[in-house]
Amino acid sequence: MTQQTMPTPPEADARPAGFLVNLFGLLADFLFLREGQTRIDLYAFLAWLRRHQHADQAQRIEADPALLDAIRNALAEGHGEIITRLEAIDEALLHLCEPPGPFATVARTARPDLALRALRT
């Protein structure tokens, strides 16, 4: 008896390691430039990706209707809520980079404010 495996969607194979972290990082950069705006437009984000040499990311997002919808819904939460969530992601990454090693050093150096906060808790 052979075991059948479920096929993987072709989009999943095309996404490299770090895709999610990169996507969140680009979103954070985009939002930083729009501080104070309450409504963030999905198509403005996609256009910004293209203008800043990330057309491949824009194409991946547009090629996946579920991802496109998910990002649209996330952006609808508003600038402040998204920043709060991105801050929580940074904190989680800091914890994931432990125990001490090269990734932990990068994380603590990039966000010393979070590293200090983590030491206090």
Descriptive report:
With 121 residues, the chain is mainly α. Helix content is 70%, strand content 0%. It is built from eight helices and no strands. The protein is globular. The N and C termini lie far apart (53 Å). The model has no long low-confidence stretch (mean pLDDT 83).
Short description:
The protein is an all-alpha fold and 121 residues long.
Give the number of domains.
1
Radius of gyration computed on alpha carbons: 17 Å
Parts with pLDDT < 50 across at least 5 consecutive residues: none
Number of helix segments? Answer: 8
Order of H and E elements: HHHHHHHH
> What class would the helix/strand composition place it in?
mainly alpha
Give the N-to-C terminal Cα separation.
53 Å
Estimate what percentage of residues fall within beta strands: under 5%
Give a short account of the largest sheet: none
Mean pLDDT: 83
Outline: globular
The tally of beta strands, per DSSP, is 0
Percent of residues in helical segments?
Answer: over 70%
